[in-house]
User: Fold this.
Amino acid sequence: MDDFRPSPDFRERVMDDVRSYESALSHRKQRLQAFLGSGPGLVVLAATGALAGMVQLVRLTALLVFPALCH
Assistant:
């Protein structure tokens, strides 16, 4: 293991890859925050929440109604 010698620019190449990866993640996070802070983003979130709430209400109603119908 002592015989291993990395190339002189190994650390530089790895750090460049890490910086580009972090930059891509940061850019993606900024785009997501911009979308969620915009009007259409808020409308999509509200509509999704309302739809999920309606599905849950149907499930709860079915839980109460179907056993009474089948009995």
